[in-house]
């Protein structure tokens, strides 16, 4: 099976040039000018278009039992949506219950993706408790190819870990060379603020943000980095939403702490007014940490351009408005958290980042693909256009105009947080390991084409 992509403008995290790309089997085998086409090769004319490495979303939830319900997508629907949007690899957060065996949870989450995912996939292993037998189980999971952990400094009484558990997790991670991703808040402060707001009759979705203010998130980053400094572990603050939290990470980095920062596409495109929409419409925009002010949004763009924020993910957590988000009518703490966005991330980042000149094309590729590959042990297999890299490629039409709508998206939710938004640019052709999986905004691939990405610790 051969594929020749001709005459495209090849853009990576550091390069920008015109070339042909030859893919044979699952890998890139040649890059150059006027490459000969092998017999029976599929030839794609990329003249006038960009050719970029397949995008990587390092923070998604697909199988997710949460707040008394389950996320709507499965690996088939989420994978199709990701691919049509230009994303060829997903890293899912495994979120076991505190009483769930870690190895069994890992097997369960992985089994949900095997033979169903059309895109490639791997996991961050959630640590929701760290008891006497935990270390051996986590070592086994790492040996099986999972090179990152996830901890929650939130969700008291559920997913959150104690300080003792956090310390032991980071110690083990430092020993194994595993990076620890972390949801940074302060679970005690959040719980207290929630109860005070509810007691005052402030029950609507507009009170979700005041229950988790900026300083609570920043204190979570400070807490994480203190433990990272003492253990020597590498850490990664997920879905960072504001200046104070980013600056806490940068201050720790200045002390030598190995920390990287992620933001997510809702924080770059939405602001707090969406969660304040009347008639419970704001529930569609409840996620944690919450969507912040326009000033915070603008700061995040600047931090992204400067490289202080390394990656742009989604925190894709798909719940219906009807029947699921509505569980929180009369009590905002019961609204399932999350905004479905795995399909729209790349288009929104291009439209609101590259088109107005907020970020360069190279930074766009870096933040949406290459940095995730480097941080999570996938580079240069993924996130690169190099001979020997996987033939995960996106032929991008920079002139295409489109409209986002729940009527046409492939995610299984009954709403879009970006309903009616106009976007510029789309993935015209998407390949996963040399196989064409999407064309002209349509999924054309095979279900189950995706493969588990076994990774070795790199930290």
Automatic annotation (TrEMBL):
GO terms for molecular function: hydrolase activity, acting on carbon-nitrogen (but not peptide) bonds, in cyclic amides; metal ion binding. It comes from the Bacteria. It holds the Pfam family Amidohydro_1. The modification N6-carboxylysine is found at residue 150. Its cofactor is Zn(2+). Its EC number is 3.5.2.-. Keywords: Hydrolase, Metal-binding. It is an enzyme of class 3 (hydrolase). Carbamylation allows a single lysine to coordinate two divalent metal cations. GO terms for cellular component: cytosol. Coiled coil: none annotated. Residues 50-436 form the Amidohydrolase-related domain. NCBIfam families: D-hydantoinase. Belongs to the metallo-dependent hydrolases superfamily. Hydantoinase/dihydropyrimidinase family. This is D-hydantoinase. It comes from Posidoniimonas polymericola.
């Amino acid at each position: 099976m051969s594929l020749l992509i001709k005459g495209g403008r090849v853009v990576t995290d550091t390069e920008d040039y015109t070339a042909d790309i030859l893919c044979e089997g699952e890998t890139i085998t040649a890059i150059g000018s006027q490459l000969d086409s092998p017999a029976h090769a599929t030839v794609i004319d990329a003249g006038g278009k960009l050719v970029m490495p397949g995008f990587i979303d390092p923070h998604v939830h697909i199988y997710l039992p949460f707040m008394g319900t389950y996320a709507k997508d499965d690996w088939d629907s989420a994978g199709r949506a990701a691919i049509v949007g230009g994303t060829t690899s997903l890293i899912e957060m495994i979120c076991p219950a505190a009483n769930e065996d870690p190895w069994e949870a890992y097997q369960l989450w992985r089994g949900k993706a095997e033979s169903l995912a059309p895109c490639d996939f791997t996991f961050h292993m959630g640590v929701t408790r760290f008891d006497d037998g935990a270390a051996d189980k986590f070592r086994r999971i790492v040996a099986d190819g999972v090179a990152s952990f996830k901890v929650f400094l939130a969700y008291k009484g559920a997913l959150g870990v104690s300080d003792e558990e956090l310390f032991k997790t980071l110690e083990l991670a430092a020993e194994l060379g595993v990076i620890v991703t972390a949801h940074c808040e302060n679970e005690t402060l959040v719980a207290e603020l929630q109860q005070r707001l509810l007691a005052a009759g402030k029950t609507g979705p507009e009170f979700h943000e005041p229950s988790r203010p900026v300083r609570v998130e920043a204190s979570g980053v400070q807490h994480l980095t203190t433990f990272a400094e003492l253990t020597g572990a590498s850490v990664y603050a997920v879905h960072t939403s504001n200046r104070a939290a980013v600056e806490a990470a940068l201050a720790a980095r200045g002390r030598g702490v190995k920390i990287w920062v992620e933001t997510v596409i809702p924080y770059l495109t939405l602001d707090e007014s969406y969660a304040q929409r009347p008639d419970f419409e704001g529930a569609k925009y409840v996620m944690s940490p919450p969507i912040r002010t326009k000033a915070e949004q603008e700061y995040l763009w600047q931090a992204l351009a400067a490289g202080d924020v390394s990656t742009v993910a989604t925190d894709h957590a798909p719940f219906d408005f009807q029947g699921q988000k509505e569980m929180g009518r009369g009590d905002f703490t019961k609204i399932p958290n999350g905004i479905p966005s795995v399909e729209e991330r790349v288009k929104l980042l291009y439209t609101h980042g590259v088109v107005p000149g907020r970020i360069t094309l190279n930074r766009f590729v870096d933040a949406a693909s290459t940095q995730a590959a480097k941080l999570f042990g996938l580079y240069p297999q993924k996130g690169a256009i190099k001979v020997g890299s996987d033939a995960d490629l996106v032929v991008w039409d920079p002139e295409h105009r489109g409209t986002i709508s729940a009527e046409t998206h492939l995610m299984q939710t009954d709403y879009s947080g970006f309903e009616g938004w106009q976007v510029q640019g789309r993935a015209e052709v998407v390949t996963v390991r040399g196989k064409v999986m999407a064309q002209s905004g349509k999924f054309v691939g095979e279900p189950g084409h995706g493969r588990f990405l076994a990774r070795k610790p790199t930290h």
